[in-house]
Structure formats: C-alpha cells, structure tokens
Design brief:
Layout: E1 4-6, H1 10-18, E2 25-30, H2 35-50, E3 55-60, H3 65-70, E4 75-76, E5 78-83, E6 86-92, H4 96-106, E7 133-134, E8 145-147, E9 166-167, E10 174-192, E11 202-207, H5 214-219, E12 224-227, E13 239-240, E14 249-256, E15 267-268, E16 270-277, E17 281-282, H6 283-292
Parallel strand pairs: 1-3, 2-3
Antiparallel strand pairs: 2-5, 4-17, 5-6, 7-16, 8-10, 9-15, 10-13, 10-14, 10-16, 11-12, 11-14
Pfam family, one: Thioredoxin
Organism: Phascolomyces articulosus
Protein name: PITH domain-containing protein
Length: about 290
C-alpha cells in the first residue's frame, strides 16, 4: 500500500519535488483547523493506495509557512501536482472527483491502467479548458427532474456515459432541472446527441430557480439563451457560457424550446457541465485569529 509523506521541512519538500523524476507528485496543502481539509483527508488516503505509481504528500501550512508562501497557496485545501520538478496542475477545494481526474490526467502513460481502467480519454476531462473540469460529481442525482420527459428515457440517462438518452414526450420541449450539492462556477456545457435531427436547438438557461415550470419560462428572464448548430454536437465541441453570469450556481434549469429539424420529440444523450467548485477556505480571512492562538 502506498503511503502519504507528511513533509516536515522545506528541504524535504524541495527534495521530493526535485528528485521524483517523471513520477507524478500530489501535494495536499492543509491545516488542522480547516473543515474541508479534514473532510477530504480519508479520500486522499484512499486514493494514495489506488495509484501506487503516484507519490502523495501533505504540507501543514501552519508548520511550513515558507513552503505554502513559495507555492502561493492562498486557500485550503489546495492540491498541487508536480512532475519533473514543475507544477503541472492545481486544484483549490475538497473535490474528490477532480483530484482523481487530475491524477489520471497527469500520471503518465506508464501508469495508465493500474487502477483497472483503460485511462483513455482522461486527458479530456476538462475539454481543453484550463482550471475547469467535468462537474458531474457535484450533481445531486435524486433531485434531478425533467418536465415533459418520456418516463422510459428519463433525465437520469443524460449523466451516464452510455447509449441511454433523455427524450421529450408529447412535443419537442423539455425543462431540465439540475441541482448541485455545493455552489459551482460553470464555464461551458458539452451536449451529446445520437440523432442530430432531434438534438436541441434553442435552449434558455436559468440559474438558481426553484420549482420551475413552463409558465415560468415565459415570465422569468433567462440567464442566457444559446442557439445550437450541428457543429456544437461534434466530439470535441463545447458550448461556452457567459462565465461572469455563472459564478455562484446551486441549480441550473435548461428550457429546450425546439430541436434541430422540428422533429416531434427532442433527444439528449449526455449533458456535461464544465466548471469548478466554490469550496475553498480563504487563508487570509483566518490569519489574524491564527496568529492570536
């Protein structure tokens, strides 16, 4: 079983980063009084055993202030990923799903498959958007809903990576409600469709709405309207949102008005929201109290 190095000095940190060669090093910058840090600790221990070809380490920011300062750590927990002496990625916040995605992405080809997976596609988890990744892990499945959905082809299918799909029922319109288990920032959306003719065309997006229905779609001003074209459903295509309007999202409503070729029903194979969680503890806010202790 792999072990986590609890680094005790600046020199020990420098040696670990500089002497690990091409091995991925994941460093957890934490504090003993940080709630999210304590919450993610068991997962960090678990993942260290799952990926034996990756070196995991922890830095107590109160004990090794020089290291935290040199690494520009401003929030906790912060996870930094190093390879060949260089930082290759950083994640702020206690996101188990994003930590593992970054491990898969940066561990290297020699280590791929050691967790029992093929490793294929992991480098595309953020669809080329730096600092963001797939937010599926932050969705609350049992609170998802879709109005005018076909009960056999329901909304839960759009968060599965298989051939299942969501389909509307009596006409082409759909209202899809997606709740998140914590506030997130949403940068873009990836929409997959098997049949382009039935794929969504005009989609109105609403943030942080409760009990949203078709009457609300006519009376409530949308956060953004997107008009989709066939090219938006290509393999590597993503639809960018007006990021400044999606900075603190706890739920999202998608109102699909019509589809590409005025088909009787609309189909969506998969929905992927790309962004980042809002869950880090700001160290500067706690600095004064920490110094008094």
């Amino acid at each position: 079983m792999a072990s986590i190095k609890d680094l005790q000095s600046t020199q020990e940190f420098q040696d670990l980063i500089s002497q690990s060669g091409n091995k991925l090093v994941v460093v957890d910058f934490y504090a003993t009084w940080c709630g999210p840090c304590n919450m993610i600790a068991p997962f960090f221990a678990q993942i260290s055993a799952k990926y034996p070809y990756v070196q995991f380490a922890k830095v107590d920011v109160d004990r090794l202030r020089e290291v935290a300062s040199a690494c520009k750590v401003t929030a906790m927990p912060t996870f930094q990923f190093f390879k060949s002496g260089q930082k290759v990625a950083e994640l702020k916040g206690a996101s188990a799903g994003q930590i593992e995605q970054l491990v898969k992405q940066h561990q290297g080809e020699t280590a791929s498959g050691n967790d029992g997976s093929s490793g294929s596609g992991s480098s595309k988890n953020n669809y080329g958007i730096s600092g963001h990744s797939d937010l599926t892990d932050f969705i609350t499945p049992n609170q998802m809903d879709a109005l005018n959905q076909n009960e056999e082809n329901n909304v839960k299918n759009v968060f599965k990576s298989n051939d299942a799909y969501l389909e509307s029922d009596v006409d082409e319109q759909l209202i899809i409600t997606v709740p998140f288990n914590q506030p997130v920032k949403i940068h873009s959306i990836k929409i997959k469709a098997k049949n382009i003719a039935q794929a969504p065309k005009t989609v109105k997006i609403y943030t942080n709405q409760q009990a949203f229905g078709f009457d609300d779609a006519d009376s409530v001003k949308e956060t953004q309207t997107i008009t989709l074209e066939p090219k938006d459903f290509e393999e590597d295509a993503v639809v960018n949102l007006r990021f400044v309007k999606f900075q603190n999202v706890t739920s999202l409503v998608l109102f699909v008005e019509d589809n590409q070729e005025d088909e009787e029903t609309t189909q969506i194979q998969q929905l992927i929201f790309i962004g980042s969680p809002i869950e880090a503890t700001n160290m500067s806010n706690l600095k004064k109290g920490d110094e008094e202790n």
